[in-house]
Amino acid sequence: MTAASVTARSVTPQDLTITPRDRKFARERTPAHWWNGGDPVATALYNALSATFPEGEAYFVESVRRFKDGTPPKLAAEIKAFTTQEAIHSREHAAFNKAAAKAGYDLTPLEERVHWRLSFSRQRPPVVALGATMALEHFTAILAHELLKDRHHLGKADPEAAALWKWHAAEEIEHKGVAYDTWLWATRDWPRFKRWKVKAKVMLFVTRNFIVDRTLGSLELLRQDGITGPKAVARLLWYMWIKPGMMRRIFSAWLKYFLPGFHPWNVDDRHLIAGFDLSGDYGQEPVKKVRGAKAA
């Protein structure tokens, strides 16, 4: 398969610009202990997510860059911009995690679990690591979509912390197709069914680990707040799956990953980040579909 045919299988918008925004957060003032609306459960879940990003996003960069050589020029440029964005994300979540530590949380157990997971993954072939990155990038993109679509998720959050998460979400949407297009390039000689089978199996494995680890990490942070036992589990599961139910709300977008012809840019949700560089405000127009070639 030629570079031109691989490019044709991608539906990434031709006019897409991936723009690294070098911003700094949580430097001058430490967010409150329960920075997300005074809610220990909401704070625990977002802190547990943040604990994954410094090492996790470095892993994403490592996995994608292994396949950069020989890629079509447009994809090579997108990989470079992706790398820069992710490096800044790692830096800013490291700063945010230090702020959480100053606010009284010990994120060490969560960070150690991330390191353990990634150490295991690094023992697999590079293309499997790329597949894991592609799956996790889909997770972050659909989480980002929901976060920006519904203002209630961060509506009562500390402004500085909310700004960090919205900035991160905007850039996750912007570069959501890079790992997937790199996967198409890396597996360009694979039969189509093999490509689908591997990406599906990796996504199921990643999903299990993502949900289990973020749940356990959140419960650990709740334990540090003295919230334990069945009450802690019930409150967390209610928050994750019922109200506001972030995990429930992203389920249909997650499921589309397994459909023939899936590509992250089948849904063009750039309207959610329109005007971000000017005001940080986001549009609320209905999501528009983009028709493209089958890429599964």
Automatic annotation (TrEMBL):
One of its GO terms (molecular function) is hydrolase activity. Keywords: Hydrolase. The keyword Hydrolase applies. It holds the Pfam family Metal_hydrol. The keyword Nucleus does not apply. Gene3D superfamilies: Heme oxygenase-like. Residues 1-17 have a biased composition (Polar residues). It comes from the Bacteria. Residues 1-23 are annotated as: Disordered. Transmembrane segments: none annotated. This is Metal-dependent hydrolase. It comes from Sphingomonas alba.
